[in-house]
From TrEMBL:
Protein name: UspA domain-containing protein
Species, as recorded: Noviherbaspirillum denitrificans
Organismal lineage: Bacteria, Pseudomonadati, Pseudomonadota, Betaproteobacteria, Burkholderiales
Gene3D superfamilies: HUPs
Residue ranges occupied by any UspA domain in the UniProt entry: 1-146
Family: Belongs to the universal stress protein A family.
Domain of life: Bacteria
Amino acid sequence: MYNRILLPTDGSEQSRQAVESGIIFARNMGAAVVGLHVLPRPHKDLLDAWMHHDPGYATQRLALFDRMADEALSFVSNAALGLEVPCICRKVESDEPHAAIVAVSDEERCNLIYLASHGWKGQQLYLGTVTLRVLRDSRVPVLVYKPHFR
C-alpha cells in the first residue's frame, strides 16, 4: 500500500516518538522512509545583531540549527538502521515548514506523510498549525501521530 513514507522531524520528544512509530509502520508495510528536517532560512536578523553587537552571532546561531538538524536526522537514520528499514535523510531551508514538507513529499515521491502533532493542552488547539497546513496542502495521505508523554 505505502512504499515510501516521509517522516518530518524537529528533534522534539514528540517527533522522536512519531519517528519510532513511523519506522515500525514502514517496516510492517515493507516501505522505505525519508527523514526530513526543515531549517529556518538564514536572513539578516537586525534585532539580534543590534542586541548582541556580535557579527558572528548569526553564524553561530545557524551552526546551532544545523547541528540540531543533524542530531534529529541521525535519530531517524539510526532508528531505521536498527529495524533494517531503507532510509534517506534530507535537510531543507524554508520559512514555511508545512510547504517544505509537502514539497519534499512530492520530490521524493512519498505516498504517505507520517508526522507528529505537537498540539496544545487544555482548551486550546489539539493539532498544531504545521500539521493543519500539511493536512490542507498535501496531495498524499497524512497520518497524524499523537504522542504519549513519558
